[in-house]
Amino acid sequence: MLEVFKNYLQKKVSITDEQFNLISGRLRVKNFDKNEMIVMKGETAAQTFFVLSGLLRSYSIDSKGKTHIIQFAPEQWWISERNGLFFNEASDFFLDAIEPTQAILVPKDFFNESAKHVPCINDLNNTMLNNSIRFMQKRINMLLSATAEERYLNFILLYPNLTLRVPQWMIASYLGITPESLSRVRKDLAHKHFKP
């Protein structure tokens, strides 16, 4: 399964098979069952996850017991809990598997160590970090200023294959709206003959 990760890297940066063999020794593939908890709030995460198959999510639970989904991670997405990973602090979020999932566990120093053998991998790391910041800025702006319909349409663009893979309440949680509001949005879009 490391072949999938190698192909992913080779699409992003110029890396040979030999170079990949040099940097891949500390990568581990792990299977997670559906609903398996991977990181608990309060734990210190030691790695990031690259999803090979399946679906992960990160989320928080507020003082009233309401779930707030921060991110979904389908195939070939990265997901991590940065408090523990980069600051050695307790996690603010939970991370679990929505579906049976196979993921690569990537140590936090993977990119720094890999750059000793493959200098251009630093470019990928910087691009991924900036994309993550850009994604979060856009997400905050959507939550603050977009209508429920605009949020849902943006969700479909970002996660085109998830509408049939996750329960509607999870999509509503990610969008910051109630399941009833999401149902109305979907009904309105159906009347406009919109097909995701």
UniProtKB/TrEMBL annotation:
Q: Where is the Cyclic nucleotide-binding domain?
A: 30-113
Superkingdom, according to UniProt? Bacteria
InterPro entries assigned: cNMP-bd_dom, cNMP-bd_dom_sf, RmlC-like_jellyroll, WH-like_DNA-bd_sf
Task: Tell me what this protein is called.
Answer: CRP-like cAMP-binding protein
Gene3D superfamilies given in the database record: Jelly Rolls, Winged helix-like DNA-binding domain superfamily/Winged helix DNA-binding domain
